[in-house]
Structures are given as C-alpha cells and as structure tokens.
Amino acid sequence: MATPLMAHPTNAPVVPAFSRPEAMFRDPLGMTSWLRSRGVALTMDNTNEYTAAISRPTSGHPNYKQGSSNAGQVNTALHINWEKIIGLKGFATHTLFTSRYGTTANRMMGDWLAHSSEIYGGGGNVVVHLVTAYGEENLLGGRVSIAGGRLTEMSEFSASSLFCNFQNNSFCGRPKAAIDNQYITSYPAGEWGFRVRGRPSRYTYIQAGVYFAERGIYANSQHRTGFHFNSSNIVGQIAPVEFGWEPMLGREHKLPGHYKIGAQLISAPNPDNYYDVNGQASALSGQTARNRPQTWGTWFEIDQKILRHPYSNAEGGLTMMTGVLYNDPHTSLRNYETYAAFVDRGFIRSRPYDSFGVVMTYVQISPGVSNTDAIDLSLVPARAEPNHATGIQGHETIFETNYQVHVMRGVVVAPDFQIYFHPNAQKNLKNVEFIGFKSQIQIL
Questions:
Q1: How confident is the model over 378-401, as pLDDT tens digits?
Q2: How far apart are CA 429 and CA 112, in angstroms?
Q3: Which pLDDT score, from 0 to 100, does residue 228 have?
C-alpha cells in the first residue's frame, strides 16, 4: 500500500516486485539472485528483545518481582510469482512461518496490558508456526488487488511498517487497541479471510475484507502450530473497511505520508463488560455476562515525513506519527487509545542508517471494566478482578525511546528505555521503568 502507482500504469495483470531487504548474506553462492530471477523470494530474519526492570514493584503483592526477560523469533517468508513460473498472470502466493521463544518482563511487575517485549506470545512454543498462507491477484497494473487464504487482518488494516521502529507492544505491531477483541487476528495469528483493495487514483486506496472469526486464535489448545484449517472454531465474521491517502508532499523532496481512516464490524458473540443476561451488574448478581452479537472498532492514523536531511539516503528524514483508535465501550477493555511518535533517521551525517525514536501512548479503559473492578473490590471478601487487575483499572500511559544502531549490513541493535505510568491502568501500582535492547538480523 505504501508504494503509489506508476504515473502511467499498464492495464494488464502484474505482480508487484517483491521487496529485497538489506541482508547479512546478500546473495549466497548466487542463490538469491537465481531464485528471484525465476520468481521465488525467500527471506529469513531474527528479532530479539530484552527488557529489565530498573525499579522495584509495588509492595504488598507477593507475586510481583523485579526481574528481566528475553523474547525473540525467527521469521521465514516465501513469496512466489506464478506468472514467471507457469504464466499465471498477476498471481502470487505469500507464506510466512515463525518460531518464537522466551517471555516478557512487564507481567512480573503487574502489567498485563502492554508487553515490554512485543515479540512475545502467540507463536505456539513450537519450532514452526504458520502465520499466513494466501494467494493474491493483481489486476489493471496494480489498481486492484484481491487476496484470500490464511490471512492476518491487522497486517492489512491499521498497518504500518513504522510501528516496529519501537519495542513495546502498546505500539509495535500495531496500536494495541486495534486488536482489542478476542477474534481479531494480529501477527502471528492467522484466520480464513478475503481482502479486496482498489486504487481510485495514484495516491489513494480503499480496501475491505471479510475474515471468519475463530475462537481461541491465540490459544495453544487450537492454534499452537497455526495449521488448524477446519471450520470448527468459526463463530462469526469480521468486516473491516479502510480508506487511505498516501501523498508525496513537496516539489523538491517528495516527502511521503500516509493518512488512513477505517472501521470494522464484528458479528460474533462478545460478553458485555458490565451487564449480565438480566441487565444487572454481573459483578453483583454473579450471573453470566450478557452476550452482544455485534461489536465494532474504529481508527484514524497519520504518518508524515516532514523533513529530509540533505545528506541522508532515501530512507532518511524526520517522520511524525499520530492516531486515535476508538472501540465499542460495551465489549472492549481498551475503550480508546491515542499516540504520538517521531522517528528521525540519518540525522548524523556519518551514520546514515541510524535512527532515534520517541513514542507516547495513552490507553483509556472502558467504563464497564472500571465499574466492575470497583464492585469486586467493595465485596467482602473482595472478589478476584478480571484482566489480572489488583485495583480499579482506569488509564495507562507508556513512554518509550530508543536509538537504532546500524552495526553492519543486515544487523541493527537498538538500546531501549520504557516507562509505564499506572501499570495495568491501575493507580495503586507505582510507575515502572525498563531498560533493554532490540536486535534485528536480516539473514537472507
């Protein structure tokens, strides 16, 4: 989506060129070039994230502790251009596997809302976990793209490659409120789905999709390996739609920007976060929560490069980001999230691939969740609260900053600092600071 159409695109089906990231092994024994000339692109990378608490946890909670953790993954992607192989014009397939390991440190300090290491979770704790496997047909010179198969919804909608310049899960991958529902798939979980994208003009697009909501998409019992293909867990549909404007501003420097607005309707049973089946507070009645047959979410997001350094490469410059995501307050945990960030790459003349970034995210908990917490705490004896809460959940702010060091071709290491203001959105928990690093190694 981030690449505009050519000024005069063809009307024939076409497979867009597969990206070729900078890698440690650029072309081992000529293998990469040989494969790509025949329509096959194979990439492999490793991401590793380490965080350590530099402050003590809130006293009075024996399960909390000051500690550190490491989490990581190995990704392998296979892209095949079937036009080059068998002459099937405009058709390509994309398959992605991952292997994840480790854990995350924030839970040691009582926070369950935003992982200090984004790469943790959902990978199945197996050697090979299937993320996506789908086919894509590009028509009219790229003006129309149709995809179907095992897809990850939030890799297509509310998506940006800029998010993972950072490490905290409140922002990296996608703003966390975008997947504040048990059925929405985000990397590394996939589900059956279809997506259609069209470009009415060179710098605009509109896309829509239908994804089949499945129970337990992040649970090991059903999706440990990602190869659970039958329909036994499907309970409804998710229908997202998004409109985007991707201009190149400025006559001289051509500064890229991305402006998007979107929404999704989820037609699958979701429990109300406050009311029971009789319209009373479920925390007081003890009755089963009311099931709502539909719920929804919305987003409005912007990133815009505002400055290009005269001595930097094409990727260099200062990019600003902001956005707000708002969810159905009756079924969501995160009622809304807003964020602001910037990434400045190549601002040091002698370090054109280094970058410095800062991000601040704010999450507001839905009123029904906060009111349920208050009721549970008022009971004698107090009842265990949902979401691993040990107090009333209200709002949380996370600040993160890092500096990405381009060590060598294909290797980046980013020292990182994070602060949680009101961990787990609880005022009874003191602020927590983490230090750590993120390393990314592009192997192939």
A1: 987 888 888 999 999 999 999 999
A2: 12
A3: 82
